[in-house]
Description:
By secondary structure, this protein is mainly alpha-helical. It has seven helices and two strands; from the N terminus they run H-H-H-H-E-H-E-H-H.
Amino acid sequence: LNPRPxxxxxxxxxxxxxxxxxxxxxxxxxFPMFNPADILAPMALKQYPAMTTKAxxxxxxxxxxxxxxxxxxxxxxxxxxxxxxxxxEGAALGKPVTGPIFVIAGGADHSVPxxxxxxxxxxxxxxxxxxxxxxxxxxxxxxxMMKSTPDQIRWIKDRFAGTPAKGNCGQFAQ
Length: 174
């Protein structure tokens, strides 16, 4: 499995770059021997403690939008051995998935492109993971999370009520 370009260094714009700081935090949580300084550029490393332990997503977004992160990652950061291990271990495709999955995408999401989510859903369907995939047209990242909440809650309630999940992988048939 080749990881999608969600975190690829050439695909990161200034407005979504702060996600990489949180990605570094996730790698550190999984591999305590990982040093975020190995991949984060100086300005991002300076913001790392506040962004990951004292603040929230909104703080990271504000810092990024204000241009206070500068270049977030060092060249070649995706080749770091801990980043590579994290990506390989985190690749769910090819491994059994238990339970139903509801995949949500914002049709105008600039942080996580809907086409990337769609391609991952197609890959999952190809290996037998039955899922429900839904795109909310015209919605960016945060609005899709808010506007889809009633659908998410309804979907979860149905699972607790014992109603089988109805996937829609058939829509991807070529």
